[in-house]
């Protein structure tokens, strides 16, 4: 289905007056609305910015995106965002700045909880599910237009802003930080892409023709590419590339931007035209499910059992202490009143920063249960997990470091990384994809349908998983790939597939994965995206650290 370029409705005159008062510069208000005066800031405005979306998400009780990512459940996330979209549509919103597709490589970043984690593939898969949910057809048209951000590059640690120079090479930008956008744009067709406020190699993303070229020419994206009000203001006030707002807007337009997010004329809200988006790839979920039921399910699926020596689940007469730590900081962790004897550590709220105090608490606890910003049902879900009324099945969407000196930490490092000079381990406190269960799963080694394929051909991989324990439980089987030899250095492993499956005691299932040729591409020395013949190691397991492998040989065409 061809998707026509949509047009968004206008904002109230009072909003523009507020913008003029807030900035003290009438010139800004005649070009675009900024700051608190943005068109999406007013309660009756057709836009919902990230803060407004987060508020609605919290009001209906859903976990934050990073918590949802711990579920590794595409269908759940599509349903959660379908519910969010329905709520925003009921508030007469036509467009929303969501989801964020930023790859989180440093937990010190300000709004880390808005991310889907550290991995480009996981972020792309969950981001596509979120967009399909938001733009789900309702009464013959999309319920709301999704504008994904922030394109592109890593985000800074505190003060948590993406405004500033980003230390990223063109190859890393393409293979890591742009990868989720390419996946989401090709599969879920969001209405718009929001350019980041950062700068890369001396060029602010708001006025970077190469970034827009990647979207429109390399990927043939037909949606709207949008500048941000803050980013345009930054071209004048921060980066000093323009002397006036008019010049800043002209720079963005010359780079290829189609409009400004929140502006009345921004071409993104296809919902306003009454034309439906393509729902290709959607699982067909409905937003009609009770928000309370959905919030409960989301909270339960997003709990991660990090450690357990058999203390959990607690029995009715257990004398084990439960130490609850919420929204911890390094300072508060250092002054926690640790119980004597056996205790269970429950981490909730924001992800705690890496610190010796946290590492010590984890080492002393008999069990550790984590649920980060689980929403209104979080406390009840954690209590259910402690008592064994539910069986945790979540997996970490990011690596948890032992100390701040290890940051940024992520599993998909290059072969030369991680050797270190510190008198300490380079291993994480808990690796990416980690999560235990109250039951026991046995995973078979990956099996190839054909050990040899040619360039351009997919590879089929199967993995058998069996619940050999006494409880029903969920397991997330993960598939990783590594180039044995390549023209440019590649990560030691990178996620290329995953599946969450729930099995009763004694039940088993064979999961099948297709590794597409696109998942074997790399940027060669000439920065061309190519698939190279050679040997590829395919690894499967329940987390990124404990894997079994097989070898796939890719021949020339």
Care to describe what's here?
By secondary structure, the chain is α/β, with parallel strands linked by helices. It has 3 domains: 13-292, Glycoside hydrolase, family 3, N-terminal domain (TIM Barrel); 303-406, no CATH class; 441-555, Immunoglobulins (Immunoglobulin-like). The protein contains 15 helices and 25 strands. The chain has helices at residues 13-23, 26-31, 50-59, 65-69, 74-90, 120-134, 170-177, 179-188, 209-218, 229-237, 245-255, 291-301, 330-334, 356-364, 378-387, and strands at 47-48, 95-96, 137-138, 141-142, 145-151, 192-195, 199-200, 203-204, 224-227, 259-260, 304-308, 321-326, 343-348, 367-371, 441-443, 447-448, 452-454, 459-467, 473-483, 494-503, 508-515, 521-523, 529-531, 534-541, 547-555. It has a 6-stranded parallel beta sheet with strand order 1-2-5-6-9-10. Strands 17-25-24-19-20 form a 5-stranded mixed beta sheet. Strand 3 (137-138) and strand 4 form a beta hairpin. Helix 5 packs across helix 6 (120-134), helix 5 runs antiparallel to helix 12 (291-301) and helix 6 (120-134) runs parallel beside helix 8 (179-188). The longest helix has 17 residues, at 74-90. Mean pLDDT is 86; it is low at 1-42 and 269-280.
């Amino acid at each position: 289905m061809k998707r026509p370029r949509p047009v968004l409705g206008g904002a109230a005159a009072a909003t523009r007056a507020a913008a003029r008062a807030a900035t003290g510069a009438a010139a800004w208000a005649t070009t675009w609305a900024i700051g608190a005066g943005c068109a999406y800031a007013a309660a009756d405005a057709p836009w919902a910015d990230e803060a407004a979306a987060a508020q609605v998400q919290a009001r209906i009780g859903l976990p934050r995106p990073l918590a949802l990512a711990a579920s590794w459940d595409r269908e759940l996330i599509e349903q959660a965002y379908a519910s969010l979209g329905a709520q925003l549509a009921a508030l007469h919103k036509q467009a929303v700045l969501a989801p964020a597709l930023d790859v989180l490589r440093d937990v010190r970043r300000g709004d880390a909880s808005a991310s889907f984690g550290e991995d480009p593939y996981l972020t792309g898969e969950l981001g596509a599910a979120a967009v399909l949910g938001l733009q789900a057809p309702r009464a013959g048209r999309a319920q709301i237009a999704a504008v994904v951000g922030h394109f592109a590059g890593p985000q800074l640690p505190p003060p948590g802003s993406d405004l500033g120079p980003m230390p990223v090479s063109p190859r890393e930008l393409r293979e890591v930080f742009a990868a989720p956008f390419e996946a989401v744009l090709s599969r879920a067709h969001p209405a718009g892409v929001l350019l980041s406020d950062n700068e890369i190699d001396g060029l602010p993303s708001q006025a970077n023709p190469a970034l827009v070229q990647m979207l429109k020419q390399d990927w043939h994206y037909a949606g709207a590419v949008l500048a941000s009000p803050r980013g345009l203001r930054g071209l004048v006030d921060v980066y000093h590339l323009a002397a006036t707002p008019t010049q800043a807007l002209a720079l963005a337009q010359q780079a290829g931007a189609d409009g400004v997010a929140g502006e009345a004329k921004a071409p993104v809200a296809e919902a306003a035209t009454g034309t439906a988006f393509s729902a290709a790839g959607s699982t067909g979920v409905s937003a009609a499910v009770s928000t309370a039921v959905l919030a409960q399910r989301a909270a339960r699926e997003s709990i991660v059992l990090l450690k357990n020596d058999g203390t959990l689940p607690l029995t009715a007469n257990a004398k084990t202490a439960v130490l609850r730590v919420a929204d911890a900081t390094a300072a508060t962790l250092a002054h926690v009143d640790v119980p004597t004897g056996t205790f269970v550590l429950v981490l909730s709220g924001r992800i705690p920063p890496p610190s010796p105090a946290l590492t010590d608490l984890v080492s002393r606890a008999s069990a550790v249960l984590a649920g980060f910003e689980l929403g209104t049902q979080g406390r009840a879900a954690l209590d259910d997990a402690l008592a064994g009324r539910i069986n945790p099945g979540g997996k970490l969407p990011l690596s948890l470091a032992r100390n701040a000196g290890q940051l940024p930490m992520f599993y998909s490092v290059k072969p030369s990384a991680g050797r270190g000079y510190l008198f300490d381990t380079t291993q994480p406190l808990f690796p990416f994809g980690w999560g235990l269960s109250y039951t026991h799963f046995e995973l078979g080694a990956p099996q190839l349908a054909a050990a040899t394929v040619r360039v351009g051909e997919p590879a089929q991989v199967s993995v058998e998983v069996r619940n050999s324990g006494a409880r029903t439980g969920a397991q997330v089987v993960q598939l990783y790939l590594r180039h044995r030899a390549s023209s440019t250095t590649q990560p030691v492993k990178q996620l290329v597939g995953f599946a969450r499956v729930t099995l009763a005691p004694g039940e088993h299932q064979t999961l099948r994965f297709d590794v597409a040729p696109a998942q074997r591409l790399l940027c060669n020395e000439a920065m061309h995206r190519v698939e190279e013949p050679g040997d590829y190691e395919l690894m499967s397991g329940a987390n990124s650290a404990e894997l079994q492998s097989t070898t796939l040989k890719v021949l020339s065409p």
